[in-house]
Amino acid sequence: MRKSEQIPPLGVRGLVARDKQFLWHPYTQHKTATPPIGIVKGQGALLWDEDGKQYIDAIASWWVNPYGHSNKYVADAIYKQLTSLEHVLFGGFTHEPAVLLAERLTEILPSGQRRLFFSDNGSTAVEIALKVALQYFYNKGEKRTKIIAFENAFHGDTFAAMAASGISFFTEAFRGSLIEVERIPVPIEGNEQESFDALSKLAATGEYAAFIFEPLVQGAAGMVMYSPEALDELMGICKSSTIFTIADEVMTGFGKTGKNFACDYLAQQPDMMCLSKALTGGTIPMAITTFTQELFEGFYDDDVNKALFHGHTFTANPTGCAAALASLDLLQTDEMQDNLVRINKKHLAFKQEIENHPRVRTVRVLGVILALEITREGNEDYYGDFRNRLYDFFIKHGVILRPVGNIVYILPPYIMSNELLEKVYDVVRQAVEEVR
Ligand code: PMP
């Protein structure tokens, strides 16, 4: 039988079986994983599978979708752009969506951020920041070839991003092929001095080009939070030692922490920022790495070899830029800003209610992010049995939550109604009681 004859026509059920024949999913051990769920429709904070079952998307599809699925305003902007200029190469050419987006973003970014470099995803945004840090010193003839990052950081899955990431099972197989990264403890409450001391020690060697961090919230580590004051202190140490600071706002950017950027909570300003995920409202893959003028000037030279020889085919894709511009419009509406406050208040009330439960170890909230650690003896591994039982419980109850070990976090689209949010809390309450 020819392959095409085995495959049912589009629109007929059977996505899971068809997927099983050809596809390879991210972060998935196919031998033991439960089959994927075939999603056929998304609207607002809801998704539907091919059997008509409804799911509340309580993690905004890996943190990308603040304004809701199938958002008409963003979709219209994309369509309009597609029918006027869908794409043009960015080497030697420019276009209005990119220029406008740069103008709009520099209005809201920390004021030092003056130069924007486009790419396609969070990992490439990080890759570019790290390359710029290393090449800046290379161009100057200075030997600073190492990077500093936090323990348990996550910055992506390409090689430099992976090197900066500290969750070991993501990177173990590639250990011998990674750039040199030294880790310091995260300055969570009570750990601040240890973190400052570790950074000061490294800074004194003069070997480090940059310090990369997820500002205020380490997402993939399980929404681990630390204070702006501690980060300011660490960034101050870097400033006085000419170590560039890279704020990876791939997760935190565009409202997640209650402000446009987590860096808006700081007195210090970063030298570089990495943006992606919510940048286009969860529609078109796109990323931007932003830089100070000083960094740009480190490459500005009569010598062509000092240029940044980095680029991707779809760099600054006009359709992606149009999606990002429409997303910014939505973020800046009073309604969306009110949503950020509303969800934060709901989270804080839920925290207060549940944090004294005997099975709850701790609850933390920042902006629209809530993380709850369930107390449990035994296997608390990242993708361990307990985590899988929690995940299955949530899916059975029609809520998409992807716990990290024993940590359940909620990061809803900003448009999620109070009613849906209450349903999410309800399922979490039940899980705390029932899942062992
Ligand atoms: N940086 C951070 C802080 C992230 O959370 C992620 C993804 N979760 C990345 C980088 C990598 O982004 P991407 O998956 O788009 O490559």
Can you describe this structure?
The chain has 15 helices and 16 strands. It is an alpha/beta fold and 436 residues long. It has 2 domains: 160 residues, Alpha-Beta Complex (Aspartate Aminotransferase, domain 1), CATH 3.90.1150.10; 258 residues, Type I PLP-dependent aspartate aminotransferase-like (Major domain) (Aspartate Aminotransferase, domain 2), CATH 3.40.640. The chain has a 7-stranded mixed sheet, sandwiched between helices. The protein is globular, with a radius of gyration of 22 Å. The structure holds 4'-deoxy-4'-aminopyridoxal-5'-phosphate. The site of 4'-deoxy-4'-aminopyridoxal-5'-phosphate has 14 residues, from helix 6.
Q: What is the CATH architecture term of the largest domain?
A: 3-Layer(aba) Sandwich
Q: How far do the termini sit from each other? A: 47 Å
Cofactors, ions, other ligands: 4'-deoxy-4'-aminopyridoxal-5'-phosphate
| Low-pLDDT residue spans | 1-5
Q: Could you state the oligomeric state of the chains shown?
A: single chain
Strand pairing plus helix content: what structural class? Answer: alpha/beta
CATH superfamily membership of the largest domain, which one? Type I PLP-dependent aspartate aminotransferase-like (Major domain)
Helix content, binned percent: 25-40%
Our count of helices gives 15
Question: What form results from the Cα inertia axes?
Answer: globular
Please tell me the overall pLDDT: 95
Question: Gyration radius, to the nearest Å?
Answer: 22 Å
CATH class placement of the largest domain: Alpha Beta
- Annotation, overall tally of beta strands: 16
Percent in strands: 15-25%
Largest sheet: 7 strands, mixed
Task: Describe the strand arrangement of the main beta sheet, using strand numbers.
Answer: 4-12-11-10-7-5-6
CATH topology of the largest domain: Aspartate Aminotransferase, domain 2
